[in-house]
Amino acid sequence: MPIYTYRCKKCGKTFEFLHKSLSSKEKVVCEDCGSSSVEKTLSSFSVSSSGGTSSFDSAPSCPSCCPGGSCSLG
Strand (E) positions, the chain? Predict the structure, then answer.
């Protein structure tokens, strides 16, 4: 089930919509104003692993930009 991020052309709200399948023709409407005038936007994604160690798990801390060598942004 793909999740897409949309932006309402009427009110500017950004929201996610979970489609039932890739070929789904579901009508997407804004959660706030109910407008069907929406556009897909680029969205961020997350990466997960099932077991083992990923390169993200062993990423070094950020000594050059964060005090104490631990990044508060991550």
Answer: 3-8, 14-18, 38-41
Instruction: Please list, residue by residue across 9-31, b when 16 or more beta carbons sit within 10 angstroms of its beta carbon and e when fewer do.
Output: eeeeeebebeeeeeeeeeebbbe
pTM of the model: 0.53
Domains (ranges, CATH) in the chain?
A: 1-41 (2.20.28)
pLDDT tens, residue order, the chain (74 aa): 678 899 999 999 999 988 887 777 888 999 999 999 999 987 666 555 565 554 444 444 455 555 555 555 55
